[in-house]
């Protein structure tokens, strides 16, 4: 039990729709990272937020966007959904303290795009 | 760019025996962190063990230990006295140390561990 929660647990959308996934960070954490995990693969970094600002981005198009709120919870938004967006979306929270920063993961949201 | 390679897609071990999972990585940096995460069928990624590259001593956490060979860029995980609950997908991950940049994890492709009763 990491204290990181995500909602919803499962979601089914159709191609072209938009989706919002939510993450609640572990208490005391100020950084949140989002990852996409396709079936049978390791997670791929989407982006990271630190104190409400995007602090780095992986190789994902602009239709993947995010927000971090003052309470450090976060949202991942995906516009114009494509079939390849079907995956497990993981968020991870951490406390940035200058070096030792371990990411703790939520249980994930399984997105299916039809 | 950093890459992490796990060359064993699947491994199996008898309950109470010892198993070693392999991981190699490629980086031009001298300071970084390495991690092993476990992902059971419940999907939640759980931290197993962490190693700081500047530390010579190999990390241990109860039945889990690592063999960190910095020059060879190798980071293997040893699980002793394997238990049925150890069955999961295991991911090796790398994170750069440098401040001011995103501290994202770079993952390998995973090793599916089966524990046989």
Reconstruct the topology from this structure.
The complex is a heterodimer of chains A (114) and B (117).
Chain A: E1 5-7, E2 10-13, E3 19-24, E4 31-37, E5 44-50, E6 53-57, E7 64-68, E8 74-78, E9 87-94, E10 104-105, E11 109-113
Parallel strand pairs in A: 2-11
Antiparallel strand pairs in A: 1-3, 3-8, 4-5, 4-9, 5-6, 7-8, 9-10, 9-11
Chain B: E1 3-5, E2 10-14, E3 19-21, E4 24-26, E5 32-39, E6 46-52, E7 60-61, E8 64-69, E9 74-79, E10 88-96, E11 106-107, E12 111-116
Parallel strand pairs in B: 2-12
Antiparallel strand pairs in B: 1-4, 3-9, 5-6, 5-10, 7-8, 8-9, 10-11, 10-12
- Shape label of chain B: globular
Low-pLDDT stretches of chain B: none
Major sheet of chain B: 6 strands, mixed
Q: Provide the gyration radius of chain A in Å.
A: 13 Å
Structural class of chain B: mainly beta
**Unreliably modeled segments of chain A:** none
* Beta-strand percent range of chain A: over 45%
Which sheet architecture does the biggest sheet of chain A show? Answer: 7 strands, mixed
Determine the mean pLDDT of chain A.
92
What amount of the residues of chain B lies in strands? over 45%
How far apart, in Å, are the first and last alpha carbons of chain B? 41 Å
Q: Characterize the overall form of chain A.
A: globular
Biggest contact: A-B, 33 and 26 residues
Helix content of chain B: under 10%
The total count of helices of chain B amounts to: 0
How many strand segments of chain B?
A: 12
Order of helices and strands of chain A: EEEEEEEEEEE
Give a nutshell description of this structure.
The complex is a heterodimer of chains A (114) and B (117). Chain A contains no helices and eleven strands. By secondary structure, chain A is mainly β.
Task: Characterise the protein shown here.
The complex is a heterodimer of chains A (114) and B (117). Helix content of chain A is 0%, strand content 50%. In chain A, the strands form two sheets. In chain A, strands 2, 4, 5, 6, 9, 10 and 11 form a seven-stranded mixed β-sheet that branches. A four-stranded antiparallel β-sheet of chain A has the order 1-3-8-7, with no helix packed on it. Chain A is mostly beta strands and 114 residues long. The model of chain A has no long low-confidence stretch (mean pLDDT 92). Chain A has no helices and eleven strands. Chain A has strands at 5-7, 10-13, 19-24, 31-37, 44-50, 53-57, 64-68, 74-78, 87-94, 104-105, 109-113. By secondary structure, chain B is an all-beta fold. Chain B has strands at residues 3-5, 10-14, 19-21, 24-26, 32-39, 46-52, 60-61, 64-69, 74-79, 88-96, 106-107, 111-116. In chain B, strands 2, 5, 6, 10, 11 and 12 form a six-stranded mixed β-sheet that branches. In chain B, a hairpin with a 4-residue loop joins strand 8 (64-69) and strand 9. Chain B starts with a strand and ends with a strand. The model of chain B has no long low-confidence stretch (mean pLDDT 93).
